[in-house]
Specification:
The complex is a heterodimer. By secondary structure, chain A is of the alpha+beta class. Chain A is 27% helix and 24% strand. In chain A, helix 10 runs parallel beside helix 18, helix 12 packs across helix 13 and helix 14 packs parallel to helix 15. By secondary structure, chain B is α+β, with helices and mostly antiparallel strands. Chain B has two domains: 74 residues, Beta-grasp domain (Ubiquitin-like (UB roll)); 75 residues, [2Fe-2S]-binding domain (DNA polymerase, domain 1, Orthogonal Bundle). Chain B has seven helices and five strands. In chain B, a hairpin with a 2-residue loop joins strand 1 and strand 2. Bound molecules: FE2/S2 (inorganic) cluster (2 copies). One FE2/S2 (inorganic) cluster sits at the interface of chains B and A.
Amino acid sequence: MTIPFNNPDRPNSYIGKTVPRPNATKLVQGRGRYVDDIVLPRMLHVAFSRSPVAHAKIGTIDLDEAKAVKGVVRIFTGADLAEVCTPWVAVLAHLKGLKSPPEHPLAVDRACWVGEPVVAVVATTRAAAEDAASLVVVDYEELPAVTNTMTALDKDTPVIHPELGDNLAFRRLHEEGDVDAAFANAHKVVFASFRTARHTGVTLEPRSILVDWNPAEGQMTAYHATQAPHMMQTVFAKHLDIPESRVRVICGDVGGSYGIKVHVYPDEVATAAIAKVLGRPIKFIADRLESFSTDIHARDHEIEAKIAVDADGKILAIDVDDWTGIGPYSVYPRTSAIEGNQVVNLCGGPYDFANYRAQTTVVFQNKTPTCQYRAVGHPIAVAITEGLVDMAAAAIGMDPVEIRRRNMYPDDAYPVTSPAKMKFEGLSHHASMDKLMEMMDYDALRADQAEARKRGKYRGIGIASFIELTNPSPFMYGIGGARISAQDGCTVRMDPDGSVVALSGVTEQGQGTEAMLSQVVAEGVGVLPSQVRVITGDTQVTPYGGGTWASRGAGIGGEAALQAARALRGSILEVAAAMLQADAGQLDIRNGQIVDADSGEERMPLEELGRIVYFRGDTLPKDLPRELVQTRHFITMEYPFAFTNGVQASYLEVDTDTGVVTLLKHWCVEDCGRVINPQLVDEQVRGGIVQGLGGALYEEIHYDEDGQLLNGSMADYLVPMAAEMPDMVVGHVETPTKESELGAKGAGEAGTAGAPAAVMNAINDALRPLGAQMTEMPFTPERILRALGKLQD
Amino acid sequence: MTELFRDKVDVSMTVNGEPVEARVPAGQHMIDFLRLELGLTGAHASCEHGVCGACTIRVDGDAVRGCLMLAAQADGAKVWTVEGLTDTSAISDLQDAFVERNALQCGFCTPGMLVAADELLSRGGVPSRAEIREHLSGNYCRCTGYEAIIDAVESVAKGRAVKGTT
Ligand code: FES
Ligand code: FES
């Protein structure tokens, strides 16, 4: 029996409704339990002495002064930890040619970026550990630093890892159709170079881990702010030589992750290694400078691109040359080639065109390693694509909405395969654009823009269509050899009081996973969401799963929960039928009651069924199955990825005297498939948009030529604040995926994917009469004034 | 570490309405004192240099950054954290509005955000959205995009104005 999602009056209709988040109340009361809130008996703290230079040979290490600090228990060097922890190499077999050297929890002979951990100091308090770490004296013999992405492969640039031969980590060229011929014969060709700045996630909760090794049980327990507990279980087991079954990763409340907390960090592995050596709980909480210098960075891309169109605005070809610098190591185990790879996969995404060439070149450099951060590669690909499309529209004098309408895949074209060889099951670009036009009242806004211009104000409208990759199959990581599960599972059980417990492999990072699961399970079983208790983030308890990344929580974890819940419903009804001498097919469960399916008449509360099954099983028929617990796993099979789509619009004003951009309003129409909880989805979209706006206007990690990090504090690395952010209007089109009964595709990253391009196009729309064009993010007042020719030097 | 910081200072204050006497290291920040010594883990340390507002607590009626204030400076002060404000139901309407409007995701910024918002609300009247945004600009939230927070604070301001409780 399938659920008639289209009927809002169906019984137990929680999927598709805004139901409250079960875990929100504790968080507003300050009753959350983040890793740093946990105190264990005999707990020690670790702090790290980190490389102050971008590239250096590590000479003698003098620990005398550090050891003298009261409270210091033990100090570890790279050589010490290399004895108890094997190094890792972050490559994936399907990313052909990707290379990376072995990486240790603490640098052994050489430090390769500012912030790389070199010495670990363990003490009874964090203050003592930090004091002592600052007294560690390391003799750094400086080596030349490679900092410029574009010259990293030049002959006279030093090779960071000589054993790898060159500074090229990965390169992929994709070519489809006859690109050169298309450009040669085009009506119009537009060139542009784009640049996206180095970002980092700035989770308010810094990276946090507390590891307890119990030698008596041979068991390691890691309390870890992570998105992927099972992946971390494997990593700790493998590199610390512990059976996988003897590593338990517990992920309680997490203070924001956005992709930052899905990677393996050397200092966190060092913490686990130290716990194993000392046999005592060890806590590591990054401070803010450590966050900036060691949380993964992302999006440091430089791109040359061009587009060819015919006289009707039809896209003939797109050609993209993308370069990115990833730091000295590919990050384990997801690798740092994925972002560039995504740029190749995603450029031109919404459009039906024939000739496509894209190359990504991924190079090593002496900066903080980069890896996957919210909307991986999407903001870059969308900025390139939508920037080019707008420029082409301007070049042929066409309205930016019109040129998109002429090129987007028709809504009835699916399934289709894009020139990047992405398979789309079902998207809704046109319906989404129609909805956007209606929501923003495009024509009225154009009139307002014209009117403002008469008053000397430069306002602009920017549109950005996009696709977003979600619900990855094993084609993303597993196929390349990484033990990262694309499958996820859920166990649902009914307890004697008729309440339901759901244990899921996906995790809660604040996005509302637990609320989503509670309503899916409530509907699937037939109880109130408040009767469902959700447990996530404990590898010893939940079914094995991939965790939360690539917006897979609802699409994968939600479907597993639905199937498990439906199975439990079946088990319950079988018992109920025996108890009531009825046909299971004529019974239903609604609001925690067994009812007659046709009349809705109440027959028995679940509590009564629970009482009989658990305490008076003797009264049931001997061979009646009575397992009130069911587990289901889900994995996508038909498509390597689900794709969502959407379109965003930005309306803003540029002050041409100061270069300051004021965001007036922002719109997003998103098609994330089935919307399970409208409020949670909308807030995911809004939060995502604001992260994208940060990238467009403020966020940029700066290094000097020597690889010195220049802005490692929240005061210097600007993120969006309340006063500058606009109100955002969010709308939906729903094209559920047919791969699952639930039909959800994922909504966590769309906002971030499209917002920077929308802002870029709006700024360029505003400045076009002045002949200025911005393609280098963030669009700071300084860059805008330079583009306007008002600032020169 | 200098000798100065190793020195201990006797302090006496009330925290969440209860008297607290302690001997604190002179260099200990208020947020660490609350979290480490009193087990009040509601307020969080995030940037630890006065930028993000995650550590915001109420000291003698003002919203104050727990990472910029030393515990020693709180001698004689009346300190409130989210735990006490919850126990006394002082901000329950605001908390309810945050939950109702989903004005929090990870919740790490929330205790500080609530204290900062309550400071604005306690001035009475119904602030404009721009005023609310301005007032909360010292409190970073990386998850929500702020709009839901502004909505929640605005709805409470309106609710309190109607009830005449301001
Ligand atoms: S931790 Fe105090 S302001 Fe950020
Ligand atoms: S809810 Fe996560 S930082 Fe505000």
